Amino acid sequence: MTNNLNVPTINQFFDSQDPVLDKEIVTLIDEYSGELVNFKKQNIPVPSNGRYLYRTKFNHDESLAYYKRIVTNDISIKIADVHGDGNTDDSVEIQRLIDEMEIGQVLHLDNKRYMLHHPLQISKAIKITGSSTKSNISFPPFLITHNNDGIVINASGAVLEGFGIYNIIWYTTSENSYTGIKVNGNPDHHVYDIILKDLTVRGFHTALDVNYLWSSQIQTVKTENCKVGILIRGLSVNNEISNNTSISINSDYDIPGSRGIWFEGSTSKEGWRIIDTLIYNVYEGIYAGKTSHVNFMNSMIDFCRHIGIVIAEDCNNWNINSNYIALRQPGYGIYLTNNIQGSSFTRGNKIVDNDILIYDHTEEDIISIGINITGRGSLYDDVRGNSVKNFKVYDIKADPGLKTTITHNKCLSQITPNIVGNFITNDNTGIVYYQNLTDSLQLGKMKMAYGESYPVISSPQWKRGDIIFNIQPSVNSPVGWINTTDGINTWKPFGIING
């Protein structure tokens, strides 16, 4: 290909053996994009397998000239020998172009469909971008995998933005074991500063699998019809899922065992922030093992099929705040089931200001609980200001001895009791059942408890005006005892029962 100025194509120039053409800078025609491009001679050798961004010219005198493409803007996929027809395998040539890119460069995808028979490997800090999955164009860029993984990120600093990646046969049509995007860190090589933004991932077993990920962002990522939305493995720390990220399964499909966000429990994780995120029509919205110091806020888990949030073994100090959690069939809204006691730094989970409900359904329901707290490691939890409705067993249940504080909740289910636990204040809406003799109810400055008698040993925990009700009343015995002094307790009977 030449134009009327007699400009050779890239291949014509590098196939030539004339040393006279070996100028410092040459202007050539790119036979794939049709654009005029410049190559600059290099003093040091370039890789011999270059095709798009660097080339080697063999002259007739056996001398070699090394050239590198001058890149001033984003690199267009148009410069590669790709088809973008959704049928022909483009993975080899896209991979070749990625391998020739330098750190910091940007590859821009055209608005076509690129078939991948092999996963793309990203081993340097580059950016791959498209025109956005939210753009008004009818044909935004998509990668289509041919029943294989999609993209594997092996290096820190990589950015993916503005395109989609689909498996050719969706998981909902035929189950598979493939992953859309993998971030591939390991114990010796943590991956930092990854940005995944404005992406759609559809039809895989797992949409996104991150391993040993640190200080990275997942924003406006939409996963659709995958069994697992985001799988988090390894020592992954200080990351954020936010900005209207959504993890969903179409309402026509039911994928048993599906999970929205799964913190896999073989290695510790901490410091995650999940904000402004939607999880829809999965069995478990969030499942966490060995994961602590997590903020889940201002988000929605909707039409969940089993449990909204599971905080399992060796998890501590979660803040679940200002979310909407709704089930479509019997299960638990929030389930804390940690049987491993944490360190002295354990401060308890905070479940605050959430709307938790179960939609009307036709299934037999003998299990549903809004907030269910079990396990000897679920200590010092604060359940406060939640609105809980339409459950059939309990709105809030905390096992004995967990020191769960339950305050100012609206328990609106038509059941008795609504709340079972200890350390329950009198500002909850609903009927309360106290579990054991050490439970107490705080009414302003006065504490009310119950027992067979008053304590014979004074304790500073008892103040003047505190009351203990008698749980074994009989004729001529008191209704209870009231403490009349501070410091050394003085208990006096009241309400003698007449015969």
Topology:
Layout: H1 10-15, E1 25-29, E2 36-42, E3 54-58, E4 64-69, E5 75-76, E6 85-89, H2 91-100, E7 106-108, E8 113-116, E9 120-122, E10 127-129, E11 142-145, E12 151-153, E13 159-167, E14 179-184, E15 191-192, E16 195-202, E17 206-211, E18 213-214, E19 217-224, E20 228-233, E21 240-242, E22 245-248, E23 259-263, E24 269-270, E25 273-275, E26 277-280, E27 284-288, E28 291-292, E29 295-297, E30 300-304, E31 307-311, E32 319-321, E33 324-327, E34 332-337, E35 350-352, E36 355-358, E37 369-374, E38 382-384, E39 387-389, E40 394-398, E41 405-407, E42 410-411, E43 419-421, E44 432-434, E45 440-443, E46 446-451, E47 467-470, E48 478-483, E49 491-496
Parallel strand pairs: 5-7, 6-8, 7-10, 8-11, 9-12, 10-13, 11-13, 12-14, 13-16, 14-17, 15-18, 16-19, 17-20, 19-21, 19-22, 20-23, 21-25, 22-26, 23-27, 24-28, 25-29, 26-30, 27-31, 29-32, 30-33, 31-34, 32-35, 33-36, 34-37, 35-38, 36-39, 37-40, 38-41, 39-42, 40-43, 43-44, 46-47
Antiparallel strand pairs: 1-2, 2-4, 3-4, 45-46, 47-48, 48-49
